Amino acid sequence: MKLSVSALLLVGITGVATAFQAPHHVPAVGGVASGFVKTKTTTTTTTSTSLHVATGTPSKLKVPVLDEVCETTGVTLKRYMNEVAILNPEMTELVTLFGAIDTACKAISNLVKRSQLPSSETLGYQGEINVQGEDQKKLDVITNDLLKRALRFTGRIGVLASEEEDVPVDLVNTEKEAVYTETDKYVCVFDPLDGSSNVDAGIPTGTIIGIYEHDENCSIDEECVGVDCSAAELKCLTNTLQPGTNLVAAAYCLYSSSTFLVLTLGAGTYGFTLDENLGEFVLSHPDMKIPETSSIISFNEANTHMWDEPLQEVVGKWKTGKGKSGKSFSSRYIGSMVGDVHRTLLYGGVFGYPGDTKNPNGKLRLLYEGAPMSFIMEQAGGASTTGTQRVMEITPEFVHQRVPIIMGSKNDIEEVIEAYKAAGK
């Protein structure tokens, strides 16, 4: 669908076309009303990062600006992605990929909602332990399989890594432990159900997804498994081990009072809410921006005594109103990363799961939790750090690597970074 110079037509569920006018003073560019197009580049507090497209070359992403929409249907996720693909033809295949993510998140939302019913067979533990030594809940396994199948049938995924899988997963031949497929374009990493340990209590949960490019020059034998692989083949299988600066896109779905899908393609952060009457995600938070300064902290404060001195000092000042903002911070902590980050994006604040004496590297995973959520946060004008490093710049050494994370409002995160620098760290 192209936007005309004079108007964009939307068809509501009643079948009546609703038109709205583009600003009259805006000239048309390339057949598209430039009033509905803007070009954005990715910027952060530390470095400037351009969007990486499938060719591997940086470029500027054009995003549609939809100031007025049909009140009946709004701008759906499908339509938004189609508009992005029209403006950026190199991203066309992402439309299919996000179509699968759209469907999977709706299905997972229904599973979570029904999990409390007596007839449900999704509650409780699977009776197995994953590679990280954690008990797997039934919903962990079910949602992992659901998302894996949804992505597999797009035909766009070459390598996939998940919290619930020991190694990168074969999407074509499930008898293999890992695979690289020659015709597929992207690498996808995900946590299928973040916060699943709280799902029995009805606490908000979520899905986190990161999308990278893969190396199109890779060549791998179908029989390659583990020690039988050559060094070159193993390198192909570690396409998942990329820093967050290589992310093409990231998204999360939050299953709570409403079902939200928040995404970035490297040019801002956009939030969609599931309209259950339509069965569609509708744009509800265009170009989300986190407040630069806040007065909310979101940590597990029971671990405060185990944190290192710089963080204890900063958080202590925030609580007593002696930080740079002069505000006394309040505490809001859910214990589900997606829920805590979503609230932080909307209202400002600092979410963190730092390292401590018990878990020096924290507990959150870099590849499929830390990097994608940091990408989303940075694109909304926030920042994300370990205290001493930008999370987006860390290259994982293995799939399930953990990393300390402190993310949120830019000025508050800068205060944390300065405290670590002052301590010589």
UniProtKB/TrEMBL annotation:
Q: Name one GO biological process term.
A: sucrose biosynthetic process
Secretion signal: which residues?
1-19
The pathway to which it is assigned is: Carbohydrate biosynthesis
Q: Name one GO molecular function term.
A: fructose 1,6-bisphosphate 1-phosphatase activity
The protein's annotated catalytic reaction(s) are: beta-D-fructose 1,6-bisphosphate + H2O = beta-D-fructose 6-phosphate + phosphate
Top-rank EC class of the record's enzyme? hydrolase
InterPro entries, sorted: FBPase_C_dom (IPR044015), FBPase_class-1 (IPR000146), FBPase_N (IPR033391), FBPtase (IPR028343), Fructose_bisphosphatase_AS (IPR020548)
Q: Which cofactor does it need?
A: Mg(2+)
Q: Print the keywords alphabetically.
A: Carbohydrate metabolism, Hydrolase, Magnesium, Metal-binding, Signal
GO cellular component terms attached to this protein's record: cytosol
What Enzyme Commission number(s) appear in the record? 3.1.3.11
Establish whether keyword Ion transport is in the entry.
no
What is this protein called in UniProt?
fructose-bisphosphatase
Q: What is the lineage of its organism?
A: Eukaryota, Sar, Stramenopiles, Ochrophyta, Bacillariophyta
